[in-house]
Design a protein that fits this description.
alpha+beta; seven-stranded mixed beta sheet; 11 helices
Length: about 325
């Protein structure tokens, strides 16, 4: 399909699709060959462009609706339907033939470390952090500021819909526990690599990350930071038990039930790559990347002075110890 210059950005845009009277239907990605990604309905099986209009076609190739394009706003409006832009990507340079990749990690398992290693292989980190229902858009944000106020960079777009936009060589990261979204990512032709780590190390790393990099969001979130280190760590565990720590447990459980390859942090930092990862040179790239600064890097494991009997009791009672054993750790 020939796309006129005025519409050149539409195939790199994720749109919110809906009806003026019917509300939001879902998300739509318009592929260059007329396919529609991220959305499935017989009335919108394909599309074609006619001058400044987009025509939806049903499974029989019959037009079911038409929408006019307004290039200044990158929107399509019809008598009944609309397409409103949610996220726009830049065209990928044609330098990589590798399939797009989602690095789906338990938080603090080397997410941006592995992303940086993939960049050494010629892949393109998009600086998008995906989750079940939204993403954080870190494009153009300095590394040191990326995670300070992530809520300001949230975009309502689920991982499976964003995957429909990804191009060869693209890399995105995420902490996704929902099997439905992960299946949608995979069905969009995106590879998935899971990252895991000893959950004790994750809790200690998350403690330092929250304390050093993330601004408190409430008085109670600020209070645990003011205590002496060992007490502060216990208060941190209690405060985040049903927040980030619950999320960590859910992602770990999901990864254990998924068929995609898992790269463990201890292997990644030593350049040891599972045989099923079809990325020639990844081991070397991981070794070359080790120690390089990233937006979430903790320079060293600092858990010995924080982990106490009370912390171990929390670890066991919360179910994290059981999950840790299933992941292959003590």
């Amino acid at each position: 399909m020939k796309i006129v210059p005025a519409m050149s950005g539409i195939t790199y845009t994720l749109y919110r699709f809906g009806g003026i009277c019917g509300g939001h239907f879902g998300y739509v990605a318009l592929h260059e060959d007329g396919r529609i990604g991220a959305y499935s309905h017989p009335n919108e099986s394909r599309y074609e462009l006619r001058d400044d209009e987009l025509h939806f076609l049903n499974a029989a190739g019959i037009m079911t609706n038409r929408l006019r394009y307004y290039p200044d706003a990158n929107v399509f409006l019809g008598a009944e339907l609309y397409l409103l832009p949610v996220l726009r990507l830049d065209a990928a340079p044609k330098t990589s033939t590798l399939p797009p990749l989602l690095i789906n990690s338990i938080p603090k398992s080397g997410t941006y470390f592995v992303e940086a290693a993939m960049a050494r292989l010629g892949m393109r980190p998009l600086r998008l952090h995906l989750s079940q229902h939204f993403l954080h858009d870190y494009r153009g944000i300095a590394e040191a500021e990326m995670h300070r106020q992530p809520e300001l960079r949230a975009v309502n777009a689920p991982a499976g819909a964003v995957a429909a936009l990804l191009q060869p060589g693209d890399v995105v990261v995420g902490h996704i526990e929902d099997h439905g979204q992960l299946n949608a990512v995979k069905n969009a032709g995106v590879r998935i690599l899971h990252l895991a780590r000893d959950l004790r190390e994750i809790l200690v790393s998350l403690y330092h990350f929250k304390k050093d990099r993330v601004a408190p969001v409430s008085p109670s979130d600020a209070a645990w930071r003011e205590l002496p280190p060992e007490a502060s760590f216990i208060a941190f565990l209690c405060y985040f038990e049903n927040r980030d720590i619950g999320h960590i447990a859910a992602i770990a459980a999901t990864i254990l039930d998924r068929p995609e390859p898992v790269l463990h942090y201890t292997h990644a930092i030593n350049g040891i790559v599972p045989y099923e990862l079809e990325y020639p040179g990844l081991g070397e790239a991981l070794r070359a990347t080790r120690g390089q600064p990233t937006s979430t890097l903790s320079q060293r494991y600092r858990g010995a002075t924080l982990w106490s009997t009370a912390a171990e009791e929390f670890f066991s009672a919360s179910g994290l110890k059981f999950l840790n054993q299933r992941l292959g750790y003590d």
